[in-house]
Amino acid sequence: MSVYGGQPILLLKEGTSRTIGRDALRANIMAARILSETVRTSLGPKGMDKMLVDSFGDIVVTNDGATILKEMDVQHPAAKMMVEISKAQDDEVGDGTTTAV
Question: 94 or 43, which is more confident?
Answer without folding.
Answer: 43
